[in-house]
Write a structure and sequence with these properties.
The protein is an alpha+beta fold. Helices cover 15% and strands 50% of the residues. It is elongated.
């Protein structure tokens, strides 16, 4: 093969590789924030997942009572499960109190795109446990 053709093929290969690498990347992670509501025992628990991707997210829970007043409580734990994965894909995160009625933490608990289920276990000021269930989809 002539030297000119080899050089041309080399440049073509380099351009193809560059396009392939830049096309496989993190900038496609624009799935969008997820906001969910669940009600149990007269309490409403709003769950926000930001940025709503497979990977590291920030999880914020806000609790209000049936008069829409903020409730703080004694503790909150968020459980993560991918129902289609049987025993795999399960984790949990204890949330830290941020404001009067807000709990928050970050972490890589949503590991892949697909259907997910989260359960919030929240303990009110009297020590009573309340469970809230959320179903959502993480897109690719």
């Amino acid at each position: 093969m002539p030297k000119q053709q080899m050089k041309w093929l080399g440049w073509l290969g380099a351009i193809f590789l560059l396009l392939a690498v830049t096309g496989c990347g993190g900038s496609d992670k624009k799935a969008g924030n997820i906001e969910l509501q669940a009600t149990q025992d007269g309490y409403q628990a709003k769950l926000e997942i930001k940025p709503g991707i497979a990977g590291v997210n920030t999880y914020t829970v806000t609790i209000t009572n049936d008069q829409a007043q903020a409730e703080s409580g004694q503790g909150a734990v968020l459980h993560f499960e991918m129902p289609s994965m049987d025993t795999h894909g399960k984790s949990e995160k204890e949330l830290k109190k941020k404001k009067e009625a807000s709990w928050q933490e970050s972490g890589p608990h949503i590991m892949m795109p697909g259907e997910w289920q989260s359960t919030l276990e929240w303990k009110d000021d009297q020590g009573k446990d309340h469970t809230f269930l959320y179903n959502y989809e993480i897109k690719e």
